[in-house]
What we know:
Blueprint: H1 2-23, E1 34-42, E2 45-47, E3 55-61, H2 63-71, E4 87-91, E5 94-99, E6 103-111, E7 117-118
Antiparallel strand pairs: 1-2, 1-3, 3-6, 4-5, 5-6, 6-7
Keywords: Signal
Signal peptide: 1-19
Amino acid sequence: MKKNLALLTTISLVSLAYAAEQLHWPAPYRPFKGEYTIYSGELGDQQAPTKDDRKLSFIIEGQPAKDIFNAMPPDDKETCSGEKGARSRSKQNVWCTFNPGDGYTCYFGFDLTTGKSIAGGTC
Length: 123
């Protein structure tokens, strides 16, 4: 009985220590909602995925997109939007936009046949 109590106490303390560590993790994972599509062909002319051509595109909006946008300055010199106050930031295949009417949106993608990063959105 004492062994079981000691084991239970040890497991409880380890669990509490792990939970406390997660609360103080300097870069915790955060949940988000987004959209994705699996396709073949090119962005803007997407087709059904095939055995040899499968790509994945993600769209993230709202606060997570704002966090990504703010993490990748500076602003691009040009934007795709004609809306006053529109901003755009991009680093290789990650592209984020801010439009006063729509808020923040980020796009990125992967070629599922190679695993390589690809653009997830187009202008």
